[in-house]
Write a structure and sequence with these properties.
There is one protein chain. This protein is an alpha/beta fold. Helix content is about 40%, strand content about 25%. The chain contains 16 helices and 18 strands. Strand 7, helix 8 and strand 8 form a beta-alpha-beta unit. Helix 6 packs parallel to helix 9, helix 7 packs antiparallel against helix 9 and helix 12 packs antiparallel against helix 13. The radius of gyration is 37 Å and the shape is elongated.
């Protein structure tokens, strides 16, 4: 009796008849009313074109569901390898897959002669052992991993995308990939047929033990678990007689190109002696070898991103975040050199030499760190950039990058808040001069050159020109007057704070008129300095 094969396709398969002379070929559309009757009564093998049949995978599942007692063979075929790979973990409903050109009599005969369908979960793996598909799978896996290498996703998604290729290698009822990230280990878990908490717990103990044999420094009890599709919450507590048992277990280390382990892969299957099949284990080794390159890459991405965050957090104390982002994205390229209208703030601690002489080193350094921390917060709050620290002095720049608000207003508001914070600072743990703890701030506005200055070994993005010197000169004039002094050029650039400027004609400066704020003027007048 001639074997009957049904092709479910939008195209007729008459062109295939000469290659399938030992088979009776029938072709139907996926919505044909005769479909299931034909399969039940006359058909031994169904081939579904996943290129033209929408939801081909779901149709294969439906055939299994509607005809549970029928030992029907199902093939998914495609024009290309990559399309097959996109079927991902749904291939449990098919016995095999292949390209359209490989649908010949010899291949189909081997599928029909295999004794067990994948609907029987105790059988050997048809995806990897039937016909010539093992070779196809390696090509597909290589292709998909190469695509992932060229287009890496975030770490978690990359690992799960690797795991989605495992059904091309073997039937896995549960899979776990544990990746070592030096200080932590993460277990990525994907289950296919397990919904029992105790089964998972017992299986995961084996995973922990074998991972520890490769990474002995890892605390096996603190491995972070990441489940796909939120499956952890769906675990139930079945009785011992109801739950499925993992009867076959296989694990192998995943190594990078230097042959150093970066992860471990763990596979579980309900069947007895499932991994005694050499073709399956050989292909798992191939899969682990190729996956190692990807996992090593995402591991490096993890550390690069971690270092990027640490660098960003460190320098954000001194430099606005947008400048850090620009420098990081530019890589080795420097920011461009340019002329800009900016405001420079120069701040200094009064009688700091006396403070250093009267206190031990730890006390001075701890006090300076607390003081700088508060001052930098005020500067950053108003979009300022720390240009440099000079001993106890701070040089800050406003307008060096695109900032919200007016540059001169920002600089003056930062200075006012710095004085307020300085007067509230706790100085109980340090010996101070008789005059107490005071600072002076000078601010000047003008054009300056900003750019990268230094040698190949050390460089800084800083300002060049007399503007910084004028701000320092203004700060020097604060010793016998107000704590904040700014130039006429600053006053002219003020927008919302122009009415806050109070001129101090008695301050001795031959080069510019000097101003302070209303609040500072009233404070110093009350204390008899003005």
């Amino acid at each position: 009796m001639m074997n009957k094969i049904l092709f479910i396709d939008t195209e007729k398969m008459s062109g295939k008849a000469e290659k399938l002379d030992s088979f009776e070929v029938e072709s139907m559309l996926p919505d044909d009313r005769r479909l299931f009757h034909f399969i039940e009564t006359d058909c031994r093998l169904v081939a579904i074109n996943i290129n033209t049949v929408k939801e081909a995978y779901h149709l294969a599942k439906q055939i299994r569901k509607v005809l549970p007692g029928k030992q029907i063979k199902i093939i998914l075929y495609s024009e290309s390898f990559s399309t097959i790979a996109e079927m991902k973990s749904g291939l449990y409903s098919a016995d095999a897959y292949c390209t359209k050109n490989d649908l010949n009599g010899s291949y189909l005969g081997k599928i029909l002669s295999s004794e067990t369908s994948t609907s029987d979960k105790t059988g050997t793996d048809k995806i990897i052992t039937s016909g010539s598909s093992a070779g196809y799978n390696r090509i597909i896996i290589n292709d998909r991993l190469l695509h992932l290498l060229m287009n890496p996703a975030d770490i978690d998604n990359s690992i799960f995308r690797i795991m989605e290729l495992l059904p091309l290698v073997c039937n896995c009822d549960i899979s776990v990939i544990i990746v070592n990230f030096c200080e932590i280990s993460r277990a990525y878990i994907k289950t296919f047929n397990i919904n029992d908490k105790n089964t998972f717990r017992d299986f995961f103990k084996f995973c922990q033990h074998d991972h520890f044999s490769n990474f002995s420094h890892v605390d096996i009890n603190s491995i972070e678990k990441i489940f796909s599709d939120k499956i952890e919450g769906s675990f139930s507590k079945k009785t011992k007689f109801e739950k499925n048992l993992i009867n076959s277990y296989f694990y192998l280390p995943v190594k990078n190109f230097r042959e150093l382990p970066v992860a471990t892969i763990h596979i579980g299957n309900f069947s007895n002696n499932y991994f005694s099949n050499k073709k399956i284990t050989d292909n798992l080794k191939f899969f682990a070898e190729k996956s190692g390159i990807i996992i090593d890459t995402v591991n490096k991405i993890y550390f690069a991103e971690k270092n990027r965050r640490e660098i960003k957090n460190l320098f954000s104390k001194f430099v606005p975040v947008e400048i850090i982002d620009e420098l990081i994205s530019a890589g080795s390229n420097r920011r461009k050199n340019e002329r800009k209208k900016i405001a420079v703030l120069f701040s200094d601690i009064r009688s700091f030499t006396t403070i250093t002489e009267e206190n031990d080193a730890d006390t001075v350094i701890n006090f300076l760190n607390i003081y700088f921390d508060e001052m930098v917060k005020c500067i950053k709050k108003y979009s300022g950039t720390i240009d440099k620290f000079i001993g106890d002095a701070i040089v800050a720049v406003f307008g060096i990058n695109e900032n919200p608000g007016n540059t001169a207003d920002n600089a003056l508001m930062a200075a006012s808040e710095m004085i307020s914070m300085q007067r509230l600072l706790n100085t109980g743990g340090i010996k101070l001069p008789e005059t107490g703890f005071e600072i002076g701030i000078g601010i000047h506005y003008g054009e300056s050159i900003v750019g990268n200055i230094g040698s190949d070994e050390k460089t800084a993005y800083t300002i060049v020109g007399k503007i910084s010197g004028i701000a320092e000169e203004l700060e020097g004039l604060t010793k016998n007057t107000a704590a904040i002094l700014f130039s006429h050029q600053m006053k002219e650039e003020l927008e919302n704070l122009k009415d806050e400027a109070v001129e101090l004609p008695d301050v001795n400066s031959e080069n510019f008129r000097v101003y302070t704020t209303k609040n500072e003027f009233e404070f110093q007048k009350k204390n008899g300095r003005i």
